[in-house]
Design goal:
alpha+beta, Aminopeptidase, 7-stranded mixed sheet, 6 helices, 7 strands, 29% strand, disordered C terminus, binds coenzyme A
Length: 196
């Protein structure tokens, strides 16, 4: 990657569903290989994820943001969220997913997507937000770095395996925006690749 080339965040639409599905499946495979079974990861399908996200995107009060490489116009990451789907946790909003292609990670893009989504949730009436993350996912530190607080765990079935997920929350999203998100959701978010 060239030094100085930029990635920006924007609202995602139906036109991005194919790219979102590819980012999701490819990033699951690069992140969870060794943590989840090869059979499960290799059995994931772009088409199934495209359909799943088409349904989610059509849901009420759902927000989607994409991170786009300005050089190629390729969607290289996304985040989505909306109403909390877990009634036993009293938080109004939920971050459903955030995924960035491996070669673009750790350059501020995740934080930019997180902030765009959190801002949209606040604007649409959500005051708090929950996220579920596999307890063995090393990227759990990302959420803690931007103020997520662990509040519980649950077992979930992924293919044939049962794994444990942790819930992290931001109980006051407005104050998270003030403390962690000091740039606008449409601002260019980039850092030069430290390897270039
Ligand atoms: C997790 C993910 C979204 C984070 O996005 P990112 O662009 O890599 O992270 P950022 O560069 O925006 O990092 C923001 C902060 O979190 C920290 N951080 C990010 N990932 C981290 C990690 N794995 N361990 C420790 N700190 C981490 C960064 O150092 C940075 O700290 P700073 O503000 O002090 O500089 C991205 O790495 C990703 O998609 N990973 C694979 C998929 C995944 O695990 N998704 C979450 C599923 S629940």
């Amino acid at each position: 990657m060239c030094q100085g080339h930029s990635v920006y965040t924007r609202q995602a639409s139906e036109k991005d569903l194919e790219a979102i599905a590819r980012v999701l499946v490819d990033t699951w495979r690069s992140t969870f290989r060794g943590l989840l079974s090869d059979d499960f990861l290799d059995g994931m399908s772009y088409e199934h994820q495209r359909e799943r996200h088409a349904r989610t995107m059509a849901g009420p009060r759902t927000a989607y943001f994409a991170a786009v490489d300005s050089r190629t116009d390729e969607v290289i990451g996304f985040a989505n969220g909306g109403p909390n789907r877990h009634s036993d946790y009293p938080y109004s909003g939920e971050l459903y997913a955030i995924y960035i292609r491996e070669e673009y990670q750790r350059r501020g893009i995740g934080k930019s997507l997180f902030c765009a989504l959190a801002r949209r949730l606040v604007e649409t009436g959500f005051s708090s937000m929950l996220v579920w993350v596999l307890v063995d996912n090393p990227n759990r530190r990302f959420y803690e770095r931007i103020g997520g607080v662990p509040v519980g765990e649950r077992p979930i079935k992924l293919g044939p395996a049962t794994v444990t997920e942790a819930a992290l929350v931001w109980s006051d999203l407005m104050s998270t925006l003030g403390s962690c998100c000091t740039f606008g959701s449409s601002d260019v978010a980039w850092k030069a690749d430290p390897r270039s």
